[in-house]
UniProtKB/TrEMBL annotation:
It holds the Pfam family Epimerase. This is GDP-L-fucose synthase. It is an enzyme of class 1 (oxidoreductase). Belongs to the NAD(P)-dependent epimerase/dehydratase family. Fucose synthase subfamily. Keywords: Isomerase, NADP, Oxidoreductase. The keyword tRNA-binding does not apply. Pathway: Nucleotide-sugar biosynthesis; GDP-L-fucose biosynthesis via de novo pathway; GDP-L-fucose from GDP-alpha-D-mannose: step 2/2. It comes from Somion occarium. The lineage of its organism: Eukaryota, Fungi, Dikarya, Basidiomycota, Agaricomycotina. Its EC number is 1.1.1.271.
Length: 329
């Protein structure tokens, strides 16, 4: 059977991980390329998905039968707080254009990407797939969160009105090769990794914001990639699925820092700046639904995944997103 799979946001952290897995897993295997499949990994330069005409042109060019929709305006806390209207509007436009064009062009399956940070601020833990809409998101990222939540609403609307096969995935914190390492804007792992690198290179202090105590679930981008590929082939339901390691695999920011120090072979000391806010102590998400459906799946051990990320960062420092060629929002 021939299939054209268009991955929007194909040049980002998650998109590049899917590309890696599709190209390196044995052909015909569970996560490898299947006969007759063609994969396209689109960047914003091929079409700005905030624009309906450019979205239409991208779909006319490739005629996708399947879409994994990852493209989004993504950012850390600071950027989310500063540009709420832009996060709301850009992501709303991108999602509306991709979903509606998929509908108009008869895409047979569309998976969009949400995030556990779109969940309500006040919610009972662990997070599960039934709790997305049970309260307002944290005010720091309400633009991004509302735009993302609307994808789940739209998926249900398209299914009810047109029978569309649209669904979504909800990853926890992702890290891996091709991440955004720009210190102005990076998530915690790429930010600490870049800081440690600079301390090692320049002999300057390595200072970690907060107490190091908060716990988080991190998913390696190449594991997440496999889960998207599985979802594309084996999951046909509108309800989202959380993509996460288990609740017993939370790691503290101190454990993350120690693993980075080891992987970087950083010989100096590091300190915690306890005047910096910690954020929530933990916000565990349940992966029970995922495990009940996927069967046997091995997550990469955290330290191994971090080692691979550090290796990629060191080998690609000159071209990685480190802030050198920063685009303004
Ligand atoms: N990173 C995380 O921890 C995390 C956690 C949960 C969920 N997610 C979700 O996972 C998805 C992928 O995130 P990521 O971390 O891979 O992001 P990323 O590395 O920042 O990549 C973003 C991708 O979106 C594309 N893009 C941005 N604006 C676009 C536009 N207007 N038109 C077309 N393409 C556009 C970018 O293209 P260019 O390269 O051309 O700019 C890039 O390919 C997102 O939906 C995000 O919300 C991420």
């Amino acid at each position: 059977m021939s299939a054209l799979i268009l991955v929007t946001g194909g040049t980002g952290l998650v998109g590049q991980a899917i590309k890696y897995v599709i190209e390196t897993e044995p052909e015909g295997s569970r996560f490898g390329k299947k006969p007759g499949e063609k994969w396209i990994f689109a960047s914003s330069s091929e079409g700005d998905l905030r624009d309906a005409e450019q979205t239409k042109k991208l779909f006319e060019k490739y005629k996708p039968t399947h879409v994994i929709h990852l493209a989004a305006l993504v950012g850390g806390l600071f950027k989310n707080m500063k540009y709420k209207a832009t996060f709301l509007r850009d992501n709303t436009l991108i999602n509306d254009n991709v979903l509606h064009t998929s509908h108009l062009t008869g895409v047979t399956k569309l998976i969009s990407c949400l995030s556990t940070c779109v969940y309500p601020d006040k919610v009972e833990y662990p997070l599960d797939e039934t709790k997305i809409h049970l309260g307002l998101p944290h005010e720091s990222n309400f633009g991004y969160a509302h735009a993302k939540r609307m994808v789940d609403i739209a998926n249900h609307a398209y299914k009810d009105q047109f029978g569309s096969n649209f669904t979504s995935a909800i990853p926890t914190n992702v890290f891996g090769p091709h991440d955004n390492f720009d210190l102005e804007d990076a998530h915690v792992i790429p930010a600490l990794l870049h800081k440690c690198y600079l301390s090692k290179k320049n002999g300057t202090p390595f200072i970690v914001g907060g107490t190091g105590k908060p716990l988080r679930q991190f998913i390696y981008s190449r594991d997440l990639a496999k889960l998207f590929i599985w979802q594309l082939r084996e999951y046909d339901d509108v309800e989202p699925i959380i993509f996460s390691v288990g609740e017993d695999e939370e790691v503290s920011i101190k454990q993350v820092t120690d693993a980075i120090v080891k992987a970087m072979d950083f010989k100096g000391e590091y300190t915690f700046d306890t005047t910096k806010a910690d954020g929530q102590f933990r916000k565990p998400a349940s992966n029970k639904k995922l495990l009940s459906l996927i069967g046997d799946f091995q997550f990469t051990p955290f330290e191994k995944a971090l080692d691979e990320t550090v290796k990629w960062f060191l080998e690609n420092y000159d071209t990685a997103r480190t802030g050198k060629n920063r685009k303004t929002t």
